[in-house]
From TrEMBL:
It holds the Pfam family Amidase. Residues 1-26 form the signal peptide. This is Amidase. InterPro entries: Amidase_dom, AS_sf. Residues 60-490 form the Amidase domain.
Length: 510
């Protein structure tokens, strides 16, 4: 199997995985039960503690997770969450183990495996394609800024994750989680259900126990929605907190990296590693630095906090949305933890030109990114469209959105000006209610409405599991607030998480 064309594991990597599968699972059985949590579902804190006690090495952990990916992603339920394994992962883990034996630790992420969405540049043997066969060629020449940060923090990039091709900007109506390179991704809880959002493989991979950490990107709902659908913690930071350099864009007007983990604390640890000003990304120039995002995490963080929540409202496309059972139970948990709940009537600003503005941004930002990549079959949007016409794939899916973007008569300056107006109106819609009701944050169901408002505003948001539906699909709650309130939101989400403990491992149901 050639990873350049199938988007799956290299033959060498698969052979390594299959050869170690049985021995690794058996060899780590005792360690996995030491804390009554299976190794694949252990937190970063637990894994780091085991490594510090010399009960576990990074190499052993990487081999264990590779074997799990082989068992569940390539075989068994075939989740198609991992588009490509890193053939150098074991060597990297061995080097990090050697550092630890010499008394050097890079911090809590030292030796911890992480999955990277397939739109982040990695200067290694892996491809960076946004799920598109049109981008299969030479690997990226340099790491994305946030990828370098993760490497510097001591993580082991175990592989790249599948995603909705071109971050779902190919054609409306295509299945979420599908890419021409990686195939159709599946939800590990209910295999026939949707994965949602373009960071689908990152969310499904974390949920399935392929890695404790993953990174994705969001323009509008592509972290928060798959986090909800796959039952994990998804955090979209304030726009500009994390660098966008070296990431295949929709548009920098709204794109941001974000985290997908199984716990809020693990997300906060990733935030500690990913903060920092990038000279190549002007959007990060005024981002706060030097923050310990774990500092406010406490079980009593909700005590006395004023939390707004939406009552029944008419959402996008005229849908009437009412709070579900799991959300009402979540509100009860908040009150039990001392939060003061304030009912709200949500406000949705005018968004009539929103998608045109995003397309105008992509028309500029994508070609600018393509110019940074050599050895690719395409260098322009027109060449991408031509490639897709010549290589329709087995599914034969269309690409009308790409064609519309190419034909759009809008300059980047026009797109920027119009987006600034939209961004300001959405920020105002949130800030006015926060100020009017003296709120610390707002909580909602993962209904798409609140996710949309927070995304266009460029404001931070945290998705946390809240329960399970009868059919076996996860539900979640969605905390969001004003600009740079990321530490406070993580604290509120942590307090709710610890009180509710709703994280569920997947059942891999047909």
């Amino acid at each position: 199997m050639n990873h350049l064309y199938k988007g799956r594991m290299t033959a060498l990597a698969q052979a390594v995985v299959l050869s170690v599968a049985s021995s690794v699972f058996a060899g780590l059985a005792v360690a996995a039960t030491d804390s009554d949590v299976a190794l694949e579902y252990a937190s970063v804190h637990d894994l780091s503690a085991r490594m510090a006690r010399n009960e576990l090495s990074s190499v052993e952990l990487v081999k264990h997770l590779q074997a799990r990916i082989a068992s569940l992603d390539e075989q068994g339920p075939t989740l198609n969450a991992v588009i490509e394994l890193n053939p150098e992962a074991i060597d990297i883990a061995a080097a990090l183990d050697n550092e630890r034996t010499q008394g050097k630790s890079r911090g809590p992420l030292h030796g911890i495996p992480v999955l990277i969405k397939d739109n982040f540049d990695t200067a290694d043997k892996m491809q960076t394609t946004a799920g598109s066969p049109a981008m299969i060629g030479d690997p990226a020449a340099a790491d994305a800024f946030v990828v370098k940060q993760l490497r510097d923090a001591g993580t082991v990039i175990i592989g790249k994750t599948n995603m909705s091709e071109w971050a779902y900007v190919r054609q409306m109506g295509l299945p979420n989680g599908w890419s021409g390179r990686g195939g159709q991704g599946k939800n590990p809880h209910l295999l026939g259900a949707g994965t949602c959002g373009s960071s689908s493989g990152s969310a499904a991979g974390v949920a399935a126990g392929f890695a404790p950490l993953a990174i994705g990107t969001e323009t509008n709902g592509s972290i928060t929605c798959p986090a909800s659908a796959n039952g994990v913690v998804g955090v979209k930071p304030t726009l500009g907190l994390f660098s966008r350099s070296g990431i295949i864009p929709i548009t920098r007007l709204q794109d941001t990296p974000g985290t997908l983990t199984r716990t809020v604390r693990d997300a906060a640890l990733m935030f500690n590693a990913l903060q920092g000003v990038d000279a190549a990304d002007a959007g990060s120039s005024d981002a706060p630095v030097g923050i310990d995002y774990t500092a406010l995490l406490a079980t009593d963080a909700l005590q006395g906090k004023r939390i707004g929540y939406p009552t029944a409202y008419t959402g996008p496309y005229g849908r009437v949305l009412e709070p579900g059972l799991e959300f009402r139970m979540a509100l009860t948990t908040l009150e039990e933890q001392g939060a003061i709940l304030v009912p709200l009537t949500p406000r949705l600003p005018d968004m009539h030109n929103y998608f045109s503005v995003l397309m105008g941004g992509m028309k500029h930002d994508l070609p600018e990114y393509l110019a940074t990549r050599s050895g690719q079959p395409i260098q322009t949007l027109a060449e991408l469209i031509e490639f897709n016409e010549s290589h329709p794939g087995a599914e034969g899916y269309g690409q009308q959105m790409l064609k519309d973007i190419d034909a759009l008569d809008m300059t980047y300056a026009q797109a920027t000006d119009q987006f600034k107006a939209l961004n300001s109106s959405f920020q105002q819609a949130i800030d006015e209610q926060l100020i009017e009701h003296n709120l610390d944050a707002v909580i909602a169901e993962a209904d798409g409405y609140s996710q949309f408002v927070a995304a266009v505003a460029g404001y931070p948001a945290v998705t946390v599991p809240s329960g399970m539906k009868e059919e076996g699909l996860p539900t979640s709650v969605f905390f969001f607030g004003t600009r740079w309130s990321d530490p406070q939101l993580l604290a509120l989400a942590y307090s709710y998480e610890q009180a509710s403990m709703k994280l569920q491992p997947p059942a891999f149901q047909e």
